[in-house]
Amino acid sequence: MSITLKLAAACTVVLATLCLAPQQSHAASFDCSKTDLKADEKAICDNRALNDLDVKMVTTFELISGLLPMGNRGELQDQQTTWLKSRQACNADTDCIAKAYEARLKALMGVYDKIERPI
Predict the structure, then answer these.
(1) Most buried by CB count within 10 Å: which residue of 18, 27, 76, 95?
(2) Is Signal one of the keywords (predicted)?
């Protein structure tokens, strides 16, 4: 078999594997395959940009949580719970959900900026 045919066969196998592979069914903070998703969660699962914002928000939240002293983590968690309720109030309105994520990310960065760092 020529190199060209071997390369074509290998590419076909790779493409078939990618096409048949299970699609990711998780946003960063919840399982998209659940049947009891709320309207905002369904919208996030169905919208790649919102899913990406969810990943960014959860990653940022977890990073900041790890940097805060124990006494401040509870307050951050309370703020997260309050924010989650406001995101859920958006229902399936993707613009509202995106604005909620942008506001939360801005708030999280404000927390990050206030963390004392050694000089």
Answers:
(1) 27
(2) yes
Query: Could you tell me if 36 and 87 are in contact, meaning their C-beta atoms sit under 8 angstroms apart?
Result: no
The 3-class secondary structure across the chain, one letter per residue, is CCHHHHHHHHHHHHHHHHHHCCCCCECCCCECCCCCCCHHHHHHHHCHHHHHHHHHHHHHHHHHHHHCCHHHHHHHHHHHHHHHHHHHCCCCCHHHHHHHHHHHHHHHHHHHHHCCCCC
pLDDT digits (tens, 9 = 90+) for 66-90: 999 888 899 999 999 999 999 999 9
Token output for 77: 């968690």
